[in-house]
Write a structure and sequence with these properties.
CATH topology of the largest domain: Nucleoside Triphosphate Pyrophosphohydrolase
CATH architecture of the largest domain: Alpha-Beta Complex
Helix content: 25-40%
Largest sheet: 7 strands, mixed
CATH superfamily of the largest domain: Nucleoside Triphosphate Pyrophosphohydrolase
Shape: elongated
Number of helices: 8
CATH class of the largest domain: Alpha Beta
Number of domains: 2
Structural class: alpha+beta
């Protein structure tokens, strides 16, 4: 699954040592991933990764390079070139285009996608957390980029994570059916799983029940956890669930969701085969394909 299972030692026990982090940045073999305004810098559609020994100018012009972790014995940093104009950023990185990591997933491994998304999410947070939300004072980088501290009041500012739930709702009976919805911004045949952010004071299971009812008017009984996926666009964490509906009644909200339907496994497979596909990098694909496999004879 994309953006999940990143095999990188984040060195949480060492990154608070500023001298150690600086030493890693100075090693010639250190990997440097440059990004520009949340976009990957690419060359021939391949994300650019430079070595510190050949990218001194890139490090010099980046805004506060961030330590991502250790890949074996090699340190990995992310360098944000967002303050530069795009031509200068491309020149420094040795790239010829900028592309979102989600546009590149078909041509890179899940591990590469996870690393790029991790870098993207952390750099996005830094650009949007330069000042303290409590007193308005400027903040400074600590722990290799995994913490900011307000220079005025000393408040500790950690990277923000926004939990969300994504759910496949099924209806018991023969044959079993599952609910997919068409969102307001989607094409006329683009149906997908329901999803939504978790609210304060709410469990993940409560969020599943609320979102199902708010968006599609579906009452949910049992809720079962299926897995999770990092979704740092910019700071999401997707928790995936299966849920069972109490009845087949549907009443879409007409705002976020404009249509919702019950699909059998055969109907859903035909819909996918016709080209009406889900995102290839989303955990929603895992939910849908798993349900089809369980409910397809042979």
């Amino acid at each position: 699954m994309h953006y999940t299972g990143l095999e990188l030692d984040r060195a949480g026990d060492r990154r608070s040592d500023a001298a150690w982090v600086a030493a890693q940045a100075g090693r010639p073999g250190t990997q440097v991933i440059p990004l520009w305004r949340d976009q990957c810098l690419t060359h021939d559609r391949v994300p650019v990764v430079r070595r510190a020994g050949e990218a001194a100018a890139l490090f010099d012009e980046a805004a506060e390079p961030v330590f991502l972790g250790l890949d074996g014995d090699e340190a990995v940093f992310a360098a944000d070139l967002s303050a530069l104009e795009q031509p200068r950023a491309l020149e420094l990185a040795g790239g010829d285009a900028v592309q979102d990591v989600r546009q590149l997933v078909a041509g890179i491994s899940p591990a590469e996608a996870g690393l790029l998304a991790y870098a993207r999410g952390l750099l996005h947070w830094h650009r949007n957390q330069r000042f303290c939300g409590a007193c308005g004072g400027p903040s400074e980088v600590r722990d290799g980029g995994h913490l900011r501290v307000c220079r005025s009041c000393g408040k500790l500012l950690f990277p923000r994570i926004e939990p969300a739930v994504i759910m496949l709702i099924e209806l018991a009976g023969a044959p079993k059916r599952c609910l997919l919805a068409r969102h307001a911004q989607s094409g006329p045949q683009s149906f997908s799983t329901l999803a939504g952010f978790v609210e304060i004071g709410e469990s993940l299971e409560d969020a599943v029940r609320r979102e199902a009812f708010e968006e599609a008017g579906v009452q949910v009984k049992s809720v079962a956890y299926q897995g999770s996926q990092a979704w740092p666009f910019p700071a999401g964490l997707m928790a995936a669930f299966r849920a069972e509906a109490s009845s087949d009644a549907i009443a879409v909200d007409g705002d976020e969701v404009v249509d919702a339907r019950w699909f059998t496994a055969a109907e859903l497979r035909a819909h996918i085969d016709a080209g009406h596909v889900y995102r290839p990098d989303s955990i929603g694909k895992f939910l849908i394909e798993g349900w089809i496999a369980e409910n397809t004879d042979g």
